[in-house]
Hints:
Helices cover 32% and strands 26% of the residues.
Amino acid sequence: xxxxxxxxxxxxxxxxxxxxxxxxxxxxxxxxxxxxxxxxxxxxxxxxxxxxxxxxxxxxxxxxxxxxxxxxxxxxxxxxxxxxxxxxxxxxxxxxxxxxxxxxxxxxxxxxxxxxxxxxxxxxxxxxxxxxxxxxxxxxxxxxxxxxxxxxxxxxxxxxxxxxxxxxxxxxxxxxxxxxxxxxxxxxxxxxxxxxxxxxxxxxxxxxxxxxxxxxxxxxxxxxxxxxxxxxxxxxxxxxxxxxxxxxxxxxxxxxxxxxxxxxxxxxxxxxxxxxxxxxxxxxxxxxxxxxxxxxxxxxxxxxxxxxxxxxxxxxxxxxxx
Length: 322
């Protein structure tokens, strides 16, 4: 089990029931954490019978735009073009190893404060500051099982405060990632490290014409729905004018224009940080992180707003984490 070295100001909302759209395929397989210490990078894994690797030597021509690779087993050359090499370089750049914290699912742009008086937590913060250029990964929990997810976001360390033995940090979520393999403890067994791939920089499946039209229609409906939602939040006294203004200020007051950014904005609006006293929407942030493309994101954002508006109006049964 995860060492209890964090005293967090967050809580995890567990969904009792999700719409089929959210839970059918969006949420990935939970992580399995390992307690063995290790010091490694993404590229340093050794081959195994279940994951064999082939020794390859590379020779680059200085007069052509191709790279010749030799398979050590067959000794037969095959060639990579300049564009192939660029794609491989991009794939490599998307991978990195960073410290991770298991706390809550965040979306790009959200901010949160965490704190603890544990020595292990302070050691984690020191590592982030001294060795990771202020970067860490934040992972939440599967809303149905409570197990750690294999998706999360990179976060930038915004500030660090020390009050005696207590250490408090503020982080700002940045890019979505997927964990590759199992997280593992650092050499001091104070915190977990994980090999990750940045999915924001990975090509996404293209939308067909029908998907694009459907996504565009709901994308265009969202601004009016947001205004309705904000009015209901105030009318039903779920938030004060000041609280709503602070939520919008944290998101950026203007609704983004692109499908991806607008969808993430909406999910951050209905699942705000800091949390409202009473939840107004099911937990949708893990599903938003797991969306494959803009069609999925827009549909999830539209559905979340619809459910939240219905709930605020008192329509239908209480669903999920309402």
